[in-house]
Amino acid sequence: MTVTSKWRGAAFAAAMAMGGIGAAPAGAVTFKYAFQGDLNALDGYSINETFTSGAMGNVMESLTTRGKDLSIQPSLAERWEVVDPLKWRFFLRKGVKYHGGETFTADDVLFSLQRVKSADSQIKSRVPGDMEAVKVDDYTVDFILKTPNPILHAEWDTWHIWSKSYCEKNGCTEVQSGKATALQPFALKANGTGAFMIVSHEPGVKTVFKPNPNWWGKKEHNFDEVIFQTIKSDATRVAALLSGEIDMMDPVPLQDIERVNASGVARVLTGPEVRTIFLNMDQFRDELVYSNVKGKNPFKDVRVRKAFYQAIDIEAIKAKVMRGSSTPSALMIAPEFFAGSKAFKRHPYDPEASKKLLTEAGYPDGFEIVMDCPNDRYVNDEAICQAVTAMLARINIKAKLNAIPKAKFFEKCGFTRGKPYDCSFNLLGWTPGSGDSWNVIASHATCRDADGKGKVSPAALSSYGGYCNPKVDDLSVKILVETDIAKRDAMIAEAFTIMHEEVSHIPLHQQALAWGVSKKVDIVQRPDNQILFYWATKKE
Length: 540
Prior knowledge:
Elements: H1 5-18, E1 30-35, H2 50-57, E2 64-66, E3 72-74, E4 77-84, E5 87-92, H3 106-116, E6 132-137, E7 140-144, H4 164-170, E8 196-202, E9 206-211, E10 225-230, H5 234-243, E11 248-250, H6 257-261, E12 266-281, H7 302-310, H8 314-321, E13 326-328, H9 351-360, E14 368-374, H10 381-393, E15 398-404, H11 406-413, E16 425-430, H12 437-444, H13 470-481, H14 485-502, E17 506-518, E18 521-523, E19 536-538
Parallel strand pairs: 1-10, 1-11, 14-15
Antiparallel strand pairs: 2-3, 4-5, 5-7, 6-7, 8-9, 9-10, 11-17, 12-16, 12-17, 13-17, 18-19
């Protein structure tokens, strides 16, 4: 389908006003894909989640992007240079238009820096809080730092650049308030510069994409239309793939991999994923919200945290729950991202040692707790949590499982909607966008209330457990600015050693990717699990 430039701007506005456009014409190539979870707000600043970042990465663009091999590449910035350790200069791409017709300039970059720092942004950690942007001219921006940052742009592929003029007209100068009870109108639309435009969006149901005929990049797909839909049921997703109702699904239930591969109509693309699945324990509150222990917080005692850790049979989870498709981990980061990871070993599975630790900590009869778990976000997430609660029962920990959809989980356990961190014990997954250990340490192991004034630091917004050790905080600051790789790796190892010994978290494993894909479709599968359909083709 071809569309003239003149028609495109009017069509975009009309589609947004009406909530969509008609079906693709006969002979058009339509790509349909499904995920187990929802796509809600079309604002990547409002949730720090890989699926949302990937979906919106087809529509919105950033100064940099990641290639098929995850290498950092130019996008809205054609090139950049480090003028000195405290100044990075970015040269912007000229002639780029937003889907609504606005011209991309330096003003949009300055505006997006301001927006990403707004109160309700969940991706503040993408940029240093004290970094400033200076407009040199319409297509040149200087970023001024207070301290050196050798990985400054490593996470910028998911810091999408918004149109300043569009947001001023549509009320999206700030990220939607976490106290809002419904999505604001701007969160139901998207105005990017990317290869695809969103023409209709029903949160939690279906989203329709059309190609951007004026995209500046090189087209590698052959789609006239892309339709995303939420299909929560594993069985329904598999049936839809095998019947041809959809062209791709994520994830394929591990027990169905052989069935899909034997179907003759679809195959399973598998590969290692750099996401780590782990457990958080609330170490922040003086009394747990969801426990029968009153007047104190058992998770503030390292013996209790280690007891939970050693009660978990990770090999049983790998064999029975993950069907062999996981890699047990001793660290909060995949080994691909930290060369020193081989030096770390998991605390051994030992229920008797766990019981002894609980007795020493003053809980010989165990205690009760609620475990919050998403049931539509990670591979076999609810099943993992069921296994964990059963294992904890063997050491007299009565863990009541609260398995809920990811939207409710992130709202409850994360710092959102005015209810910060309303969980005592939970399961989470994390992919470091920068591919660097600093991201994990800063996001999950730095003190929430670093200044002692009750304000959550931007880097710690993703710290659902509230672990805090000033030494790790100090190392995080030093790691970020260190340019000597050997010294930097030594400090990373020191931080991970402290976290390991103090059981800051309970790392479980890196899950494996399992995409079900029609044999008519070719698509690039990156280890960060972003579904980028601008790198896909379909044979009709």
